[in-house]
Specification:
The complex is a heterodimer of chains A (about 110) and B (about 120). Chain A has about 110 residues and is mostly beta strands. Chain A has no helices and 11 strands. In chain A, the strands form 2 sheets. In chain A, strands 2, 4, 5, 9, 10 and 11 form a 6-stranded mixed β-sheet that branches. In chain A, strands 1-3-8-7-6 form a 5-stranded antiparallel β-sheet, with no helix packed on it. In chain A, a hairpin with a 5-residue loop joins strand 4 and strand 5. With about 120 residues, chain B is an all-beta fold. Chain B has no helices and 11 strands. Chain B is globular, with a radius of gyration of 13 Å. Classes of the chains: A mainly beta (about 110), B mainly beta (about 120). At the A-B interface, strand 5, strand 9 and strand 10 of A face strand 4, strand 5, strand 9 and strand 10 of B.
Chain lengths: ~110, ~120
Amino acid sequence: KQEVTQIPAALSVPEGENLVLNCSFTDSAIYNLQWFRQDPGKGLTSLLLIQSSQREQTSGRLNASLDKSSGRSTLYIAASQPGDSATYLCALVWDTGKLIFGQGTTLQVKP
Amino acid sequence: NAGVMQNPRHLVRRRGQEARLRCSPMKGHSHVYWYRQLPEEGLKFMVYLQKENIIDESGMPKERFSAEFPKEGPSILRIQQVVRGDSAAYFCASSPKGTAVPGYTFGSGTRLTVV
C-alpha cells in the first residue's frame, strides 16, 4: 500500500525566511508527483507537477524536487510572505490520474 | 470556463437521511474523481469515473456510498442513511484525460455536516 508522509505537520516562520517542506513515499514506481496548496475552507490549487522522468520544477518563488530512488520530494519556498500561509499537500499521481495525498504541512508566515 | 462546479457548498443532513453531492466537470472534461477529507485527516481518493462508467472505486466505503457520471448532467456522489462519521468535505476533480495532465482541476468542495 502506497503511503505518503509529510514533515513537519506544522511550521511557523517569520516573513522573508526560506523554507523547505518534505514529502516521502514508500513506492518509487510512481507516475508523477504534484504539490498543492489548500486555504482554509477552500479547494485545492495546483502549484507544481513533476513528471516521474523529471527531477525538479520551478514556478516563481517555488521549487519542487523529486528523488524517486530515495522516495522523497521537497518543496522549497523562497522569501516567504504572509500570503503563503496555507496547508501544502503533496500527492502521488497514478497513471489513471488518481491521487494519493499526504496529510499536509500547515504553514504560517508571520509578518 | 466556470471551472469545476460543486453544489451545494454546504449540506446539513440528519442521521439516516440521504445526501446527494453534485459535480459538474469543466467543459470538455470527461473524467471525474471524488475525494473525501475527514476532519483532521488528509484527502482520500474515493472513486474515478468516466462518462457512464466507474473505472476505479477502490476508495469507496463498501456500503451506503455510490457514484455515477451519466451521459448527460453532473456526476453525483450519493450517501444513503448518513451517519455522523460521514461529516467531511467532499471534493471532486475533473480532467480532460485519465491522467493528471495540466488541467486537472479541483472544485471548491461540498461540506457535509450530519447532525
